[in-house]
Amino acid sequence: MENFLLQKEDDIYLTKIVGELVLEDVEELKPRLEKILEEDWKVLGIDLSEIQFMDSSGIGFLVALSNKVKQKGKKFVLVNPSVQVIKTLKLVNIYHFFDKVDDSEDLITLID
């Protein structure tokens, strides 16, 4: 997937997804992100600042990933979600479900 970046720094994984978050993207992202669940880290930030479209597969992916991360005792955070992401999550009434930060540098403040 060309529009996906994953980087780790200290106890933080930061993932940036660009363009769309639809079924094809989810099928490629899911195994790559689930693979890191067994690693040692504390915060997973998903940067959605450049997402222009997200369908129900993308929504379901974010919810499922968030649940899996939290079950592991780690934190899942949306980083600077785009206006389109915010509208989509509010439309399906789950915007409040996610923790959010405005900037990836804010993730450091979430480490206990």
Condensed summary:
The protein has 112 residues and is α/β, with parallel strands linked by helices. It contains three helices and five strands.
- Percent range for helical residues? 25-40%
Strand runs, count: 5
> What is the arithmetic mean of pLDDT?
92
The largest pleated sheet is described as:
5 strands, mixed
Secondary-structure-based class equals: alpha/beta
Spatial order of the strands in the main sheet? 1-2-3-4-5
Shape: globular
Q: Helix-strand pattern, N to C?
A: EEHEHEHE
| Uncertain spans | none
Quaternary structure: single chain
| DSSP helical segment count | 3
Strand percentage lies at 25-35%
Distance between the termini: 32 Å
Radius of gyration, in Å, reads: 13 Å
Could you characterize what this model shows?
With 112 residues, the chain is of the alpha/beta class. The chain has helices spanning 23-35, 56-71, 83-91; strands spanning 4-9, 12-21, 43-54, 75-79, 99-101. A five-stranded mixed β-sheet has the order 1-2-3-4-5. Strand 4, helix 3 and strand 5 form a beta-alpha-beta unit.
Describe the structure using short key phrases:
single chain; 112 residues; alpha/beta; 32% strand
